[in-house]
């Protein structure tokens, strides 16, 4: 028995104590609020886009532009056949000349008859008739000039003029086609003046300020937009408010119709702290567990202790949580399969997670 007891005591003294496992840790650093960046889909559109047609009907004689052509404001884009209007215009000019001649004769006659009336050679009634003829000639000339202007106006309606600088995106009719009044012939967009249309929740839309700038991402690259206006009306289908941004000169200008993504910043007014996603382990009842380090003996060794935390916001690599821990508490940076509750560890580093 003595030999057995001695052997067991000797085995106990020779068995080495298990050494603590070194782990990488972070310190809890509380903050009163969190800046949240959210990304929203958007659409790039032209500020102005128009379907162009003739104000009167007729045979299309010329279409001077094609799809993709850039045009300037005031450029002639298409014309109708104007043979009839040109003939009417020549007739109107002849009528004006005729009425000018009649007026000149009436003026000369009136002048002579007034001299005769002063000498008593003609009656007052005759003079009044001659004066009336003069006024009739003036009225006829005015009517001829008005007719001339009306024909010129109809000629102007025979052309499509570019209403602004832009790019032709569609050509719907060609030469030889019969166009009705208002029928679209060409489509033009203001390609150099773009805007961004975004649907945002009402709270975020209301927080935007005039002139505030944001960065967007498209397939063409990154660009900067400036807040212009909001409709302040909630769409019943999407439950969002339509917000309009103008493009600045910074970045790559996209193409109208492209999709984009805009990043907005918001503030979460909630006390909590940031931890890496790898530091969390799934717990019970929708909560998550954070492994904290509890001091043991003289403080050189620590025991892993689970603490339940609630996730307030999830980011790409970090989560914002709250839970029953104190400022500066150490926790595992990564709670893998090789870490268990009650495990004795020693920290290899300790820093705040920012």
In DSSP terms (H or I, runs of 4 or more residues), the helix count works out at 4
The total beta strand count reads: 22
Number of domains: 3
Radius of gyration from CA coordinates: 44 Å
CATH architecture of the largest domain: Beta Barrel
Rounded mean pLDDT is 83
CATH class of the largest domain equals Mainly Beta
Molecular shape:
rod-shaped
Task: Please give a quick description of this structure.
The chain is an alpha+beta fold.
Chain-wise SSE layout:
Blueprint lengths: L1 H13 L6 E7 L6 E13 L2 E5 L4 E6 L6 E2 L4 E5 L2 H37 L4 H33 L2 E3 L4 E6 L6 E2 L4 E6 L4 E7 L1 H6 L5 E6 L2 E14 L6 E11 L7 E10 L4 E4 L3 E3 L5 E9 L4 E14 L3 E5 L7 E3 L11 E6 L5
Parallel strand pairs: 1-22
Antiparallel strand pairs: 1-21, 2-11, 2-15, 3-10, 4-6, 4-9, 5-8, 6-7, 8-10, 11-14, 12-13, 12-15, 13-14, 16-20, 17-18, 18-19, 19-20, 19-22
Helix pairs in contact: 2-3
Describe the structure.
The protein has 354 residues and is α+β, with helices and mostly antiparallel strands. The chain folds into three domains: 17-33 and 271-349, conserved putative lor/sdh protein from methanococcus maripaludis s2 fold (Beta Barrel); 37-47 and 192-268, Elongation Factor Tu (Ef-tu), domain 3 (Beta Barrel), CATH 2.40.30; 82-157, Helix hairpin bin (Helix Hairpins), CATH 1.10.287. The protein contains four helices and 22 strands. The strands form four sheets. Strands 1, 16, 17, 18, 19, 20, 21 and 22 form an eight-stranded mixed beta sheet that branches. Helix 2 runs antiparallel to helix 3. The protein is rod-shaped and about 145 Å long. The chain starts with a helix and ends in a 5-residue tail after the last strand. The model is unreliable at 1-17 (pLDDT under 50).
């Amino acid at each position: 028995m003595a030999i057995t007891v001695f052997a067991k005591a000797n085995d106990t003294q020779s068995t080495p104590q298990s050494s603590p496992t070194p782990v990488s840790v972070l310190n809890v650093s509380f903050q009163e609020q969190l800046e949240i960046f959210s990304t929203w889909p958007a659409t790039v559109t032209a500020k102005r886009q128009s379907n162009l047609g003739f104000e009167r009907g007729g045979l299309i004689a010329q279409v001077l532009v094609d799809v993709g052509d850039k045009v300037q404001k005031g450029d002639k884009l298409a014309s109708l056949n104007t043979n009839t209007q040109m003939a009417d215009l020549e007739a109107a000019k002849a009528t004006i000349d005729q009425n000018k001649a009649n007026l000149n004769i009436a003026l000369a006659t009136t002048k002579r008859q007034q001299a005769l009336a002063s000498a008593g050679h003609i009656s007052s009634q005759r003079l009044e008739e001659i004066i009336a003829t003069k006024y009739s000639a003036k009225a006829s000339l005015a009517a001829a000039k008005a007719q001339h202007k009306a024909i010129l106006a109809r000629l102007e309606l025979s052309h499509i003029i570019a209403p602004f600088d832009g790019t032709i995106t569609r050509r719907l009719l060609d030469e030889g086609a019969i166009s009705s009044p208002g029928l679209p012939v060409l489509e033009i967009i203001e390609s150099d003046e773009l805007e961004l249309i975004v649907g945002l929740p009402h709270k975020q839309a209301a927080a935007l300020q005039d002139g505030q700038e944001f960065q967007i991402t498209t397939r063409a690259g990154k660009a900067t937009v400036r807040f212009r206006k909001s409709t302040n009306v909630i769409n019943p289908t999407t439950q969002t408010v339509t917000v309009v941004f103008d493009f600045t000169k910074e970045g790559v200008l996209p193409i109208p119709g492209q999709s984009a993504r805009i990043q907005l910043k918001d503030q979460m007014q909630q006390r909590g702290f940031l931890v890496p996603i790898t530091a969390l382990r799934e717990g019970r009842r929708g909560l998550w567990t954070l492994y904290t380090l509890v001091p043991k003996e003289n403080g050189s060794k620590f025991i892993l202790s689970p603490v339940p935390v609630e996730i307030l916001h999830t980011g790409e690599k970090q989560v914002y949580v709250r839970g029953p821990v104190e400022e500066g508490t150490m926790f595992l940076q990564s709670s893998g399969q090789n870490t268990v509750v009650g495990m004795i560890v020693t920290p290899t580093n300790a820093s705040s997670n920012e």
